[in-house]
Amino acid sequence: MAKSPEQQPPVQAFGWAARDTSGVLTPFKFSRRATGDKDVTFKVLYCGICHSDLHQIKNEWGGTKYPCLPGHEIVGVVTEIAPTILENYCPKMVQTYNSTYYDGTPHMEATLTSWWLNEHFVIAIPENLPLDACAPLLCAGITTYSPLRHFGLDRAGMHVGVVGLGGLGHAAVKFAKAFGVKAAMGTMDGIIDTVSAQHPLLPLIGLLKSHGKLVMVGAPEKPLELPVFPLLMADIELIPFGLCEHRDGTTCEG
């Protein structure tokens, strides 16, 4: 009878970890469990840097578990796979790091030289996409593509604004252009706010049409001031959004 991952010898792993709130990454060696029956292991080739990684390694959101190996925009080449058919869906949210897996194993992820995870969280990258450019699509891409589609801000001729031109903002602008959305001039149908630091919301609310949508996908470490009265007067929707959509139309939190 085959041994379970818990019964097999641990596998030596290497990555880069933050050990305190300085956020400095240093080499880190540790042991992980063996690849399980439902797992896929791959060699990490590229990993994008998201602002949420910076929040986490500096404990700006609170609750960071050190050592913390950040990263979640990850692509690579499969080196080991369980003999099962891959199904791409999320039965339950599992963080890529600063968390624990179903079996209690600490998640230490993308700044590793190799990575292992359950088959549910693996997708095949189309051959015509370069891997180095594809990595940011796994967070910045889906985080901005999804609300544009979900809230109907993807129709040609609409006026949509993007606040913040970092990783998320650049992806949002490119998707909006591909959808045929107009550059925002005057009042807007919607705004995608990608800013991960404190900033005033009132000027943004003033740019929206009546019944417009202000979609928040950034995650500042400190609370923002919310001016409720202007929202009421113009019937503006203020929407925090953290869902990603899969090809079959289902969604998963993350």
From TrEMBL:
User: Quick check: keyword Thylakoid in the entry?
Assistant: no
Cofactor names: Zn(2+)
Q: Which Pfam families match?
A: ADH_N
Give the Alcohol dehydrogenase-like N-terminal domain ranges.
36-84
Q: From the UniProt record, which GO molecular function terms apply? A: oxidoreductase activity, acting on the CH-OH group of donors, NAD or NADP as acceptor; zinc ion binding
Keywords, ordered alphabetically: Metal-binding, Oxidoreductase, Zinc
Protein name, UniProt field: Cinnamyl alcohol dehydrogenase 8
